[in-house]
Amino acid sequence: MDQIAKLKAIPMLAGIPEEDLEALSALLTERRFSAGENIVTEGEDGEDMFVLTEGAVDVIKHTVFGDTFVVATLDDSMHSVFGEMAVIDRDKRSSTVRARTDCTALSIDRQSFDRFCTDHPLCGVKLLRLISVNLVRNIRKENDNLKQVYQALIEEIEAD
Amino acid sequence: MDQIAKLKAIPMLAGIPEEDLEALSALLTERRFSAGENIVTEGEDGEDMFVLTEGAVDVIKHTVFGDTFVVATLDDSMHSVFGEMAVIDRDKRSSTVRARTDCTALSIDRQSFDRFCTDHPLCGVKLLRLISVNLVRNIRKENDNLKQVYQALIEEIEAD
Predict the structure, then answer these.
(1) If you average pLDDT over residues A62-77, what whole number do you get?
(2) Potential cystine with A96: which of A60, B21, B53, B87 (Cβ 3.0-4.6 Å)?
(3) Are A131 and B133 within 8 A, CB to CB?
């Protein structure tokens, strides 16, 4: 399957004209990762965003004690996007994303993404909306996590 | 000061052509709130995003126990944006925003925002990028909060 056909299969790119998909395709790099490999690493710099096209990945965070825990598992059935915070700001990676199986992802770096959005603004608006939806979903999930941990803390204090 | 002049004073709108600012201005509503008034309410539906132009507001969350705590205070010196999650998805408000002083804000609803982004896509890309930067900042803040509360929980458990 060529890259344009792969892009057409990604639901978040539905409705993007073929001409724009071709321009986007030229900016994407197909990358393969082996099971167990870190695709992005918490705390490191990074400027690539990924769309998972084959396989599954774990999203992992470190606690202040150095333990790790899996926050989410993403697979290709969702064509999940990860690393998108890096194309928005220039801060460190907030999580590690580790290949759970051998996997393939399409990546785009911040500069290419910005250029694409400026050169194809109607598509840029669509892509940024989709990234924003992803970000909002993550904020709502973090909010819920925070409430749960806070509740556990209060219960622990009251049990003393 | 007329509304266009007010918009020009907002750093996040710097570089947006006057013609687009005029179109945006036509979609904005100036709203006044009294000190103590809830501008948005956690858990309720809402579809307006706000830019604070005068005064200060508290961002307030409820714990699972019904207590409230102030997560942030925003003032007009920052031309702070709030309620932006409502123009991205259709879920409930994640926080209460309460006027700390009498204040004035410009608001835009989801539908008008979407229309503006589609009709003025180059500006749409800029605005969505700025909203995304705000969202990413909030995720990073929530991450830090979660780590702190989690650390406190572990310390509390270990102290038993």
Answers:
(1) 85
(2) A60
(3) no
Asked whether A106 and A30 are in contact (CB, 8 A), the reply is yes
pLDDT at B91 over 70: yes
| pTM for the whole structure | 0.89
Please report the domains of chain A, with CATH numbers, ordered by start residue: 3-159 (2.60.120.10)
Reported ipTM: the value is 0.88
Q: Looking at the predicted structure, is the pLDDT value of residue B79 above 90?
A: no
Q: Is B141 on the interface with A (CB under 8 A)?
A: no
Question: Residue B106 is inside which H or E element, if any?
Answer: strand B103-109
A70 Cβ under 8 Å from any chain B Cβ: no
* Angstrom distance (rounded) from CA A117 to CA A111: 10
A88–B149 CB contact, under 8 Å: no
